Every structure is written in structure tokens, then in C-alpha cells.
Amino acid sequence: MKNNYAKKLLFLAVLVFANVVYAQSNLMESNYASVIQNYLNQNKEKYGLTVSDISDLSVDNEFLSKNSKITHVYINQRYQGIPILNALSSVAIKGNAVFYYANRFTGNVNQRVNTTSPQLTAKQAIHNVAAQLNLGAVQGLDLIEKNNNIYLYSNGSVSQTTIPVKLVYFQNEAGNLTLSWDLSIHTLDGANWYSVRVDAITGEIINQNDWILACDFGDSQHENHGHASNPVVQKESKFTLFKDASFMADGSQYNVYALPVESPNHGNRTLLSEPANLNASPFGWHDTDGISGAEFTNARGNNVWAMEDRNGNDGFGYSPNGTATLNFDFPLDFNQEPEGYQDASITNLFYINNVMHDIWYQYGFDEASGNFQANNYGNGGAGNDYVRADGQDGNGVGNSINNAFFGTPPDGSNPSMRMFLWSPVAGLQDLVTVNNSAVAGTYTAVNPATAAPNNIPGIGVTPVTADLQLVNDGSANPAEGCNPIASVAGKIAVIRRGTCPFVDKIQNAQDAGAVAVIVINHNNPTNDPAYVPYVNMAGEANPVFSIPSVFMNFDDGEILLAAMQTETVNVTLQGPSPFMLDGSLDNMIVAHEYGHGISNRLTGGPSQAGCLTNETQMGEGWSDWFAMMITLQGTEDYAAGRGMVTYASGQGVNGIGIRNAKYATDFSVNGFTYGDTNNTAQVSQPHGIGFIWGTMLYDLTEAYVSKYGFDDDIYNGTGGNNKVMQLVIDALKLQPCNPDFIEGRDAILAADMATTGGEDQCMIWEIFSNRGLGVNASGGSKFSRTDQVENFDMPLETDPTLQNCTSLSVDEFKQSDYKVYPNPTNNNLFIKTNKSFGQVTMTITDINGRQVYSQKVDLFGTVEVNMNTLQSGIYILNMKGQNIDANHKIIKN
């Protein structure tokens, strides 16, 4: 058995240093130097640049994208040979000309630099950072390599890896360029991978970010939307792999939640045989030398090394062994703590990392563009950067549960994935399963034993199965069960909520022989804003009840009661497992984390790791979208949408997930638009901001699938899902360092132009405009998250990219043909049109999906909508007629 990693740390140090040196190569070394320089000379005024601003440039990376046939060149602006941090422009070359240019250069550089001579040495900068970040005493700090103002030091007993240091200019919010030392330290506990700028004069840290992104999946939504796991539903896998006769068979097999299955809630495990993709992993998943025969029999190979890290020391832990036959078929029993099924869990972690590598390789996340491989098989890029994936991580830094991390250093250094355990669920859960009848399925209820401290027992892990029976206490309201009730022996008693205490109702049902109780909430006919659909039943029972009970909402209860009128309804009540949940079995989380690596490596080029640090960066949105795409199926209901990470957060398959809303195209389900990025109270940073970008990508996916269909072959298919996957990867390569929503949108439009000649420009514009990212939207400052301006306008039809737009014909509506104002409004709303749309039904829906206004009008001129009677909040206005179908988010002050 061969091992190519015996000297991996030294090899890694050399590769990282080589990368940094390469990043300083002169622009003249590019094959397209003259083309790029000529373009900049001709367009310098457009970008506010002077001749001196573009006289000292260097190539950070250059590679060919096979799909788009674009050569991507990432150019760093310098001053007297010193690079300006993140002044990194993306240049797309096609047909020996600049096809697309995304500017990130800054103007009048020579007037804004403070000095060219550091007073602090590179070594002193490391000591200062260690002291200011409380990383411990620096010991044995040795210089390994030096090239001009670029240094490579040993780990100094404060870093897991060698410490690269280089001289840069850092641009602050005021536009000043401060000479600084740029360095990175991967802390010994693995919790942080600091990327730091130290003032080269004062020695103070003036800027820092963390290459390790802590996703805090459970920070807000986990407690509020907890549900129990659904019973496993068997689904036939339509996930298509690609093989041919030349594939080097290794006999490997893995018992995993095979894609597109999302989690244990969404389907059973499948025993897969040799699932590695020929194009992306031609020697299988356990190879590292490019010669037939596996180098490793554990969950380790060219793309990932998956292992446990329960002690949280970020070391090299246990990895399941498939023996010489590479048989990773391990048992999985959830009736125990996750440590008991670590082999099955880590195998799943290994599998998802590998398929993420293989899938996105097809769309252009390959070696040259900075993907994660130990051996790049001669295909360019820097190797020795497989993913280190820790499962059941026990790091005790305050984030050791309900979380996941991913750290992305530049190409040539290993990214770090850390998967944590999740708390057992509590409160609102899918506790009720109807086993027969037309209303069979799972229903949500509150489990009082976990909802509040009281003497009303809820449902435990032992199920209770019986027929339902509505109680009758002989009173004027017989179903409220406030008086002694007729026999319900052996039944699950169904009781309506009323005026008497919950303990009285349950006691009466128990006395009548019930084996369990379901209490159904009352209705809210007056739309009382204080109405709560679920309550925590409480009260003192003496003696304590011997039967369990749950509380259901009115709507679900009415469904059961209606079915009981015509048939016997049999139900099982069962609570959630008391054991921790394992995030490595939730494919959405693993894929989301891996997605951070994709967006970070592709934005600004593979040599960068800090090009998604601006205030409105969209990294979380791309990661959510990557995860959704690999679990997407042809049966997806885009209007109803899906929740993000429902298994690990303890929700059922229809749960809202961990974001502000489900990903959904229906505005009554997800009404978030670009302007909501300004809402610091309700939209978090970066997760909430990313969610809004992810919403736009989800809408775009639906549009592509609607137009081109869905293809189960995720590797080589030609459906709309395949096309949009390619589009987004191509766009990531085109956008500049630290893009905002506007630049992300423009990169997608440019990617479509590059590959189809603009075939889908209209559709793309319509999707983004509908969510407030129209042609006149503004991204504001890179240093602020509260100055974005949304706009719903489409470009004019005179735009040459829209000349073939059938969806913008004069017979159909354009948002420029009408105006909705004022928005926000204090009372009335006006719709002003410059053409007749005929008879239109205007409806207003609140954020909970309830229709609060409906009126038919002739939409021409100015139409007034009275909103005086509506409470303050967010609403969706829909105007629907023969010539229009449009949604607008309305804010009522």
C-alpha cells in the first residue's frame, strides 16, 4: 500500500509559497497581456482609472474554462510592485478579445498610499497577530522561503500549517491605502483560520476575516421550528451515474443515503457499487497516484479524507475501513447515540464529499479552476488539497452542536470541513401519523412533556396506535370534554379546546378508557393577531396522568374530524428519539459546506480565499443552492418550495427549514426581495442575505426547468437543471472579487451570452427583476449592508441583448407599463398604468398566506387600493388578468 503523504506538510509549504510567487508574475507574462492592456487603456475613463493606475498589474491566475471556451485571467492591481489586496479584476477572453470585464481596480492610487517602506518586519507581524488574537506564545518561528516581499515561515507553535506573509496595500472604507502585512494562521484547535492585515507601520491589526465559515445552522430556527423525524419513506433513486468500459473498477461499495435522497427522513439507504465518476475520479475514490489500485482502504482518497473528531482536537481520527474489498456496508441503528453508528455516518460523509467533487467537476469546478484533489493528474492547478472532513466533531469552542464549519484556503492547501451533532428536537414536531384513510400522512403537534414543565405527559419514543374517537360529554358543547364523557375505551380521544382546563379534559378521557388524547385548537374567525395556532398545554394533574396527550392546530384537526365522519381513522402517536442527531447524515448540510469551497475558489480565482468578505456577499446563498441542486427531482413543487436542512433541525420533510422562509417561487410562501437585505432586524448577515440570493437562484432554476425540462442524469444531462448548474458555475468564474448582488446578476447574464449567445437573457432578467434586482437596482457601498436599492424594472426592449425576447412582446405586460406607489404606504396604495390591462383581479395576501383583500377592477389610469384597515406588516399584491400576472411586495407602515 502506497502513501504519498509522508512529507505532506513540507510539500504543502512549498506549494503554497509557489502559489504566492506565481501570483506576483507580471501581466506581460500572460498570453493575453496586450489584449488586456489595450482594453484597459481604451476604457480607463469608464472605470475612473488613470494611466498610472493600470501601469503595474500582475496575473494572479489564468486558466481555460472548457465549457464556455473562455480563458479567465484574474489581474491584481499593484503600486510599485506591491499588490493592493482584493483589487482583483476578472477578465474573460474569448476569440482573442475581452469578452467580459468585471472591474475591481481602484483609481488615483498614487495619491492614496501612505508609504512604500514597512517599519515592521514580516516576523514581527506574526508575533503581533499571535499576541493580539491571544493565540499563545510564538516559538521556533523559522523562515523557510523568501522572495522579495513574500515570506514563508514555520508554524511557530501557533498554527497548524506554515505561515505565509506578504506585503500588500489594504484599502479601508475611506479609500486610504495602508501598507500592511497580509498573513494567515490556522489555529491549533482548528476553530479558526485567520486571514489578517497588520499595519506595517504601527503593528496593529486593521482588518481580519476567517477562512473557516461557521454556519450556525441552529442559531435561530432550530428551536422555533423543531419537528420530529418522519418515518422513512422508500423512494426509487433516479440519480444517474456515468460509466464506460474503460473505468478502472475497484470493487468499492457504500451503503449511504444516495442522491437525490436528502436525509434519513426522505428515503432509505442504498448500497452503491463503484459510484465514482469516470471523468472526475478516473481511478476511483481511494486512489492518489493515478495507477490502478487503491492507496487507502479507509474513507480516504484523492478527493477527501473523512474521519471522526469527537475529542475536537482537529487531529487525524478514526476512519472506517472497508478492507481490501472496499466494502463500506455498515449497519445503522438510530436507537443509540451517534458514536454507535460512526462507521455508517462517516461513510455517508465520505460519499457526499466525493459526489460533490464529481458532480461539479462536470460543470467546470476542475483542477485548473482550483478544486480539491490530492493528485491533479496533470490537469493543472495546485494539488495536495483534498478535503479534510471531520464527522461527529467535538470541538468545545461554543459551537460544538447544531453547526457545521468549512475553511477554504487558496489552491494547494487543504480545506477543512467539520460536521457537528445536533440536539434532540423538542416542542413542535410531526407527532401524529394517520395510518389509513384519504388523509393518511404525518401531522404536526406540540408534545407537552418537552414544551413546558408540567404534569401533563406527552408522547414518548414508544408509539401509541389506536382508532380516533371524538368525545361526547353530554353538554351543549359535547366535544370539549369538560364533563364526564361517554366511553372511549381503547381509543385515542379527540377533544376540542374550550373554556375548561386541559387537565380536566384529559382526566375525563382517561377515566373513560382512552389510551391517548389529541386536543384540537379553536378557530380564529376574526383574524385576531394575538391568536396562536399551537399552545403548550399545562396544569397540575393529581395524580399524574397515565396516558399521553398532544395539541394540534385547528386546520389539521378539522381534516381529521372530517375524515372521521365517513370512515374509521387509525393513528399512531410517537415522539422523537432522545438521542443526538448526526449532521453527516443530512446531505444538505454536507453539500452546503462543500459549496462554500466552490464559491470561494471560483470567485476571484483559485489563488484567492478572501473574495467573499464584503458586507452583502452571497456565499450562503450559493451553498444552499448547491445543496438543493444535487437533491432536486423532477417532481419538485417550486411554488410550495422546500425547507433548508429539515432533518438535522428535527423537522419533517415539509418543514420550513432553518432560513427565514422556505425556498419557494410563490410569494405568499417566500416574499423576500432584494430590498430585504437592508433589514438588519429580521434578515441576518451573512445567512439571511445569502438566503435572499439563494431565493433568486431557486426561482431561476424553476424557470430553466420549466423551459427545458428536468433531466435525471445530473452528470451529462441536457435538462434545465443541468443548464442552470452550468450557468451558475460559469458566472462564478466571471464575477470580480467581492461581488454584490448586481455583479452576481450581471455575471449570470454574461455567462448566458458566452454559452448561448443570449438565448435566455429575457428569462434571466425577468427572474431577477421580479425579486427586486431589476435594471435600476443599486448595490450601494461594499462597506455597508443597509444601502441597497431594489428595483423591479426590466431593461428597455431597445437593449440589443433583448431583441429576440418573445416574452416582452407588446401584447404582454412589462413592469415599466405601470407603477405601484407609495411603497411603503401609510394608508392607500395606487397603481398607475400607461396602458389598459383590461379587467384584473387584485388580491392582497399577508405574510402567512391569508387573503385579506380581493377586488376586480379595470386596470387603466390610476387605481386606488384602500389599505387603511390592514395592520402594519408585509403583504403581497397580486394583479392577475388576461394581460398581466404580477406580484409586488407591499409594506404597510
UniProtKB/TrEMBL annotation:
Q: Which cofactor does it need?
A: Zn(2+)
In terms of InterPro entries, this protein maps to:
Fungal_virulence_M36, PA_dom_sf, PA_domain, Peptidase_M36, Peptidase_M4/M1_CTD_sf, Secre_tail
- Residue ranges crossing the lipid bilayer per the database entry: none
Q: Where is the signal peptide?
A: 1-23
Matching SUPFAM superfamilies, A to Z? Metalloproteases ('zincins'), catalytic domain, PA domain
Q: What is its main location?
A: secreted
Which key words tag this protein in UniProt?
A: Hydrolase, Metal-binding, Metalloprotease, Protease, Secreted, Signal, Zinc, Zymogen
PA domain span: 469-560
Instruction: Write out the annotated subcellular location.
Output: Secreted
Matching Pfam families: PA, Peptidase_M36, Por_Secre_tail
Q: Does the keyword Signal apply?
A: yes
On the tree of life, the source organism's domain of life is Bacteria
Where's the Secretion system C-terminal sorting domain?
820-891
**By its UniProt entry, which NCBIfam families does this protein fall under?**
Por_Secre_tail, T9SSA_dep_M36
The Swiss-Prot or TrEMBL record describes its family as follows: Belongs to the peptidase M36 family.
According to UniProt, the name of this protein is: T9SS-dependent M36 family metallopeptidase
Annotated source species: Bizionia hallyeonensis
